[in-house]
Amino acid sequence: MENTLWWIFFLALGIQFTYLMVVFGRFVFFHKAQREALQDTNLSGVSIIIAAKNEARNLQDLVPLLMEQDYPDFEVLVVNDCSTDNSEDLLRSLAETYTNLRIVNVRYTPDHVTAKKYALTLGIKVSKYETILLTDADCRPVSSHWIKRMSAPVRNEGKTFALGHGSYLALPGLLNKIIQYETLFTAIYYFSFGYWKSPFMGVGRNLCYQKSFFMEKKAFKSLWHIEGGDDDLFVNLYATADNTAIVAHPESITVSQPKTNFKAYFTQKKRHFHAGKYYRTKDKLKLGLYSLSHLVFWLSAVGIVILESTWEPIALVLGLVLTRAILQYLIIHRARKKLEGTGKVIWTLFFDLMYMIYFWTLGTKGYLSKTVKWK
Questions:
Q1: DSSP state letters, 63-84
Q2: Contact in structure between 150 and 69 (CB atoms under 8 Å)
Q3: Bridge partners, 102 (sequence order)
Q4: CA 78 remoteness from chain centre
Q5: Residue 184 contacts by C-beta under 8 Å, 6 or more apart in sequence?
């Protein structure tokens, strides 16, 4: 029994080290950040699309902020999705000040489609420009160069997709620290595989792609019935090694308002995990192999500590656990500095355990759920 447990422990540890040092490490330690000065040869127009439902308060702050972007030709197109607050009046008022603000008011959603996908499709269909840049109403670009950074691969390199990082505002409390850790670790996942030329997801808080490609693929065809997934599932379906770029620079990120209670957070993550079950099989394996080995690593380590009667094997296990914790700290520290411009991370070992519990509880519930809602 103990010999088998040791073999299981070392197998799980080997998989974990492979992910940390090879898959994540290649991006974190060797990816060269974009130069400070972008050599833009094509400053063609960009359409920023925002699907918003009852977001008047956020839109009042976001629209003026977007108008401060340092880019010569762009529009902000807000799709007002059946809002019952004063969003429509607010947007009309803002449009009198900002001539490049356009509004699409959705009065109803057909029964066979999901609300956000329908809203985004209407917005993209009537957008003026070929380059589409997506964000949410509660997001804020941290730099006036956000448009330029995020759209550069699509405009200048002919890429279909440009994947960006969407972080969350740092607030006091345990929940916010969990959100910060989970969001950063998710970004490490998809940036790392994107760097390995194997992209599998993006986030709608910060995503850029070609309008013509979207229309060619008939919008969200085959995804209409799935709540959520307008971002990660669309990327998962069509992103390839050749048509996708990652944008890793502190000037390219957006910051969103995080959930402030566990119930709202669990509802959000349930929707995300629900979409995840529609990923391609090979992409489920990318995520599942790490997560399964993560769980087995901790369970087998605890099992060995309980079953062994001498200090030598216990010390070996604890030493390997500590070695993995140090390596993970370095990965997360460097990733945050590369993506967000700051490297301050704490309690990585604690949140590593929290992440494991979160993944296997919420992940299972979301994967098995049949009904989820956007708003």
A1: HHHHTT-S-SSEEEEEEEES--
A2: no
A3: 77
A4: 21
A5: 167, 332, 335, 336, 339, 340, 345
Q: Delineate the domains of the chain, giving CATH numbers in brackets.
A: 33-173+197-259 (3.90.550.10)
Beta-carbon contacts of residue 145 (< 8 Å; ≥ 6 apart):
38, 69, 70, 251, 252
Q: List pLDDT tens digits, range 4-32.
A: 899 999 999 999 999 999 999 999 998 87
In angstroms, the CA 280 to CA 257 distance is: 30
3-state class (DSSP) for residue 92? helix
Cα 37 → chain centroid: 25
Left if phi > 0, otherwise alpha if psi is -120 to 50, otherwise beta: which for 169? beta
Q: Give me 81's structure tokens.
A: 């999705």
- Secondary structure (3-state) at 107: coil
Cα distances (angstroms) measured from residue 160 to each of 17, 153, 155, 187, 213: 33, 8, 9, 19, 7
Q: Give the total residue count for the chain.
A: 375
Kindly report the pTM of this predicted structure.
0.91
Are 126 and 77 contacting, i.e. CB atoms less than 8 angstroms apart? yes
